[in-house]
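Hey L., structure's done. Input below.
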Amino acid sequence: NAEYRGNSSLICDRFVSDLLLSALLKSTVQMVPILVIGGTGTVGQHVVRGLRSRSLPVRITSRDRAKVAELFGADNGVDVVVGDYTNPESFETDPFVGIERVLLLSSSVCLDQAQVEIRLIKMACAANVKQIVRLGALGASTNEPSNSLFCWHGDIDMFLRHAGIPFTLLHPTLFFQNHLRDDVASIRDQGILIRPAGDCRVSLIDARDVALAAEVVLAEPIEEHSGMTYLLTGPQALTFSELCSVISQVLNKQVTYQSTDDVAWFNGLQAQGWPKRLAHLMTKLFQFYRQGGNDIVAGDFEILTGRKPRSAEQFFTDFAHLFKS
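Output:
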């Protein structure tokens, strides 16, 4: 009857209106960029690519706009704020304007890292962001020695926990990618890997897996991960002798682990031009590892992403060409 047809038409009109409103709201939410501080670094560049592959808008901070184009292509769709995050006054514009979600990465170690990151967290609070995801370190604690990187991470984590913003902490172990930075020449030319690590075990993780974990957290609803800390490790805790056995098998050449002591390691870093305090900081990292600080194998990565983390064999297979003469 006419009354039924009228009610039916009204219900249909309301249904269509609700769908249009839902689509509009969804579109509006997706237009808010995710700020990645440290977006051209070892982890950050993979996070940016992952978020863009999900069609999520991204803003990054970078000292060099040309480097952004080199990494992601000229028409990358990435919003860039030029400036040095260790000196916020250098930003050409405020990177936090119009931002709801922030990924805070430390792409390099500096002696005032805690002060730098706490300053950035304060800026995010002032901008009323809705989520901060922070990349810290497995073992972060305010109880570690004051000149330890793990103490600095503990101080930053503690400040963030009490900042009044929903947060998520990602705590990875050592990156496999450190071997690309530090050991290509010695492995390729001499067949040796040197560390002051004794026979400690470390569950190294691929930075690409750390990036995927961050990507998942940033792509999913904030409440899914608010207040969570994820321990990100590789699938095995290996000694450096065992790691060299894996490298030897992958490269089909003998690679030997040479354990050194703290003093020789410290002096070697200084000879390479490391400032004294930073050289000491990097030496204390291995004091922590020798106490078993990174020998845990955790399942958080697989729980978070549904994938298994890359193994040492997978990593060195992917980059084998760099280690061969």
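The chain is about 50% helix and 15% strand. The CA atoms of residues 139 and 293 lie 6 Å apart.

-- N.
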